[in-house]
Write a structure and sequence with these properties.
The protein is mostly helical. It has two domains: 59 residues, Arc Repressor Mutant, subunit A (Orthogonal Bundle), CATH 1.10.10; 152 residues, Tetracycline Repressor, domain 2. The chain is 76% helix and 0% strand. The chain contains nine helices and no strands. Helix 1 crosses helix 6. The protein starts with a helix and ends in a 9-residue tail after the last helix.
Length: 212
């Protein structure tokens, strides 16, 4: 019985490993060629496998792309949750930690940014992509809005709503990501962080100070 279970475990691990290998290859192809120009053959060559293996695990390009987006979103969600958990009970500290996370090199490298924007560009025409992104956006927005609400209540700020503050922070992050993608040589992480801190210190002056 133990031998059968071990064999099954090895087969399962091998399948998961192979799927991850193909998803990683897909990410590289999208970053280099874009979604429209990426083919199953490209992914197979990038992974060093046959196209038949790609078909075996995903059946179609659409399935492969959907799982690639889901993997990307899940990885972000995992990092987001870990950062939130480690930030402690102070809402201002948690909000700052999440903003800082969005500007860390691990998340804001040009390859990942190119992939995110490639998928976002397809959201309007692909309901499956929209569903995945909407689910991620709702969770992200609920956490950021909730933290903003706590900071507002704690500081008795009367001139801003949680929704407006959260929307501004999200828009700033998206804009900074796009700026990094388009103008990587001019983009500076510290300048980007200073811009966000300037906003936070203006809206929530009793909780944040400018870094410079």
């Amino acid at each position: 019985m133990a031998t059968v279970a071990s064999a099954k475990s090895r087969r399962t691990a091998s399948r998961e490993t192979r799927r991850r290998q193909l998803i990683d290859a897909t990410l590289k192809c999208i970053a280099r060629k874009g979604m429209g120009n990426t083919t199953l053959g490209d992914v197979a060559r990038e992974a060093g496998l046959s196209q038949g293996i790609v078909n075996l695990h995903f059946e179609s390009k659409d399935n492969l792309l959907t799982e690639t987006l889901r993997t990307l979103a899940n990885e972000y969600r995992e990092q987001f949750d870990k950062t939130l958990e480690k930030s402690g009970p102070d809402p201002a500290g948690a909000l700052l930690a999440l903003v800082q996370m969005d500007l860390k090199p691990k998340l804001i490298d040009r390859q990942k940014l190119a992939i995110w924007f490639a998928f976002w560009g397809e959201v309007k025409s692909r309901p499956t992509y929209r569903k995945i992104c909407d689910e991620y956006d709702r969770y992200y927005d609920s956490v950021i809005t909730g933290l903003c609400a706590e900071v507002i209540a704690d500081g008795a700020y009367a001139n801003v709503t949680p929704e407006a503050a959260a929307e501004a922070l999200t828009s700033m992050t998206n804009g900074l990501w796009l700026s990094c993608l388009i103008s990587p040589r001019e983009w500076d992480r510290q300048v980007a962080m200073d811009a966000i801190m300037s906003y936070l210190s203006n809206v929530f002056p009793r909780h944040y100070e400018t870094t410079r």
